[in-house]
Design brief:
The chain is built from 9 helices and 3 strands; from the N terminus they run ααβββααααααα. The chain is mainly α and 214 residues long. A 3-stranded mixed β-sheet has the order 1-3-2, with helices on one face. β2 and β3 form a beta hairpin. The radius of gyration is 17 Å and the shape is globular.
Amino acid sequence: QHKDYYQRQIARAEQYMPMQKMWKWAESQFPARYDSYKIFLTAMDGGFHFTFRVANNGFQQTLMFVTAPNDLPDTRTEAEKEGSWSRTVFTEIDHNYVNPMTDTYRKQVEAAMPDWKKWNQTKPVNKGMYESTYLTFNEYMTWAVFSLYAYDNFSPEDFEKINKKEEDFMVNGRGFHRFREFNQFVLHCYKNRAPNQTVADLYPGIIEWLKKQP
């Protein structure tokens, strides 16, 4: 009975969530590789997005459950709409790249960020979901990596709008109250990286920065 509604949701996702572009960018910046993405769009998840990875006989697949794209105000440009809807799925996509990289540096990250509560005052909606250094750092990092993707794929003017909305949401909406300074540092490192350096190569510098934070 509601097939037309769901077809519109799929068409909107294909327009504003450019999966191939995000997939290509992520694999240009991290060593993880996947043979397939499977995206489940639903209006019934309440904003609790989730991703996980499966493998069988060398075939690697990542699966993501995200909220279907809803209407946004007409005052937003097409680029801003793409930025908003892309962020929804990208911040699940890149867990499949960030988390394995964090695993490589897990001991160093946990030593550099010994008290996750200094970084994470999550709102009641997220209570109990990120209560460790590992989970807190990965959430900071996945959202910062979206900023880098946006920096590479939008005009400077659109990027500033997209990035500001992201920082405001993380700080005021989710309670990751130091995200703005973290995000700005990661962005600075990315802008000033050496030729051929990837996001994965920035981990040691980010960890050193964390060590110096009060």
